Amino acid sequence: MLTKIKGGPYAISFQEDGIEKKKEESSTEPEEEESHVQGVYSGICRSRRQGMSEKTLRYEIGPIRPPNEAYSLLVRFTRNCPWNKCLFCQVYKGKRFERRSLDEIRSDIDTIKAIHDDIRELSRRKGFGGKITDSLVEAVFGSHTINESYKSVAVWMYFGCKNVFIQDANSLAMKADVFVDALKHLKETFPTIDRVTSYARSRTLARSVSAESLKRMKEAGLTRLHVGLESGHDPLLAYINKGTTREDHMLAGRKVKEAGVELSEYVVLGLGGRKWWREHALSTADVLNRIDPDFIRFRTLKVLRTMPLYEKLETGDFLLPDEEDILREEKLLIENLEGIGSYVKSDHILNLLEEIDGRLPADKKKFLDTIDRYFNLPGEERLIYRFGRRSGIYRCLDDLGDELTSFRIRKSIREMEEKEPGSVEKAISLLLENYI
Fold it and tell me: Which has the closest alpha carbon to 324: 272, 404, 386?
């Protein structure tokens, strides 16, 4: 599952990502909390318009990035998706895939540098001594004369100009020489960069990108690839028109790991529906065990009307599991993860239990105990938690300990059901749609 950027790459990242506040440095250490994130963004939300000169420099920004790349600079190497046929994705439908030229990419990088320098000078003029302070970022976001390109770079500068995400859906579909040369120019322009990540398709990695090319990309600065595994069950991969196989997934994953590039694999919980949920869980766990990725990231399926999968849902060909069915599937998958040292991340608001977050094998029991803890709650308490989670009130099961909040949610649920039976589940479904 992907995080869509609305009104610029940072405008809604906190709501969509379940208030994503974690910064990844490497796969060898747990990700640490960004203690000052909430403060700066609260300040941005409170910012007022301030008089500034017109800022007209712009560079191209694609529509999506992973949730954990919320504070990364977004640099577009390709446009859209070369496959663009997955039934559960609506992001690029009707758009043509394009490989941007090296000159286009270099021009954007040079524009980003000019914006970077302009913001630094703005800091000096406003008396901040060139530092990117909370007040400066507030001023940038509060100005009606400053465009989204400036706002994006300002946030990136605030976080130290360290992380970059290469867009769009499959940047490694471009020529390796162009990718390497563009990345070299980026790193030469901004020596502070220490992490560069991108999306990539398993089929492309398995069949079109050589091991030598991957090593060259790593030497040029590529540190991590985000790959949509989705499932390890071949019949399901064919059903959702993923355009890849479990064998492709395994070949691609191993190739990335052997090149020394970090690998983040995405699994879509619920994708097997009611028909293949068990096969989906077991086969996906098996593929992950054979790859041993640095990160396993869970995403929960939500079918929108704009997705091709919705047609199968309407005809009854695809039977959507409920949230608790999906949680049982997640438990089965985790139970079968063996012999790997991956970090498991539930870093998206669509996931019911965000606290399933840690490293295998040490935290496996904790993950399973958390799921059991949920199912051991009385039915009404489970509904209260689901409603609170989907409303953005709850982050974890411990939040149920706030008796006043729990009482208010219970009261709201009862009033809604008295007025219209079934309205609570409808409300939860609508709330989930808002996070995609």
Answer: 386
> What are φ and ψ of residue 220, in 5° steps?
-80, -15
Percentage above 70 pLDDT, the chain: 87
Tell me the C-alpha distance between 382 and 385, whole Å.
5
Strands (E), 334-428: 343-345, 358-359
> Which pLDDT value is given to residue 253?
98
**Residue 428 in 3-state DSSP?**
helix
* Token couple for 375: 């199912």
Q: Which pTM does this prediction carry? A: 0.86
For 336-378, where are the alpha helices, taking DSSP H only?
364-375
Confidence of residue 41 (pLDDT cuts 50, 70, 90): very low
Cis, bond preceding 321 (omega within 30 deg of 0): no
Q: What is the DSSP string of 85-150?
A: --TT--TTTT---EEPPHHHHHHHHHHHHHHHHHHHHHHHHTTSTT---HHHHHHHHH-TTB-HHH
234: number of Cβ within 10 Å: 16
Dihedral sign computed on CA atoms, order 28, 74, 161, 19: negative
Q: Write out the DSSP string of 290-319.
A: HH--SEEEEEE----TTSTHHHHHHHTSS-
Residue 145 has pLDDT above 60, yes or no: yes
Residues 118 and 274: beta-carbon distance below 8 Å? no
Question: Does residue 385 carry a pLDDT above 80?
Answer: yes
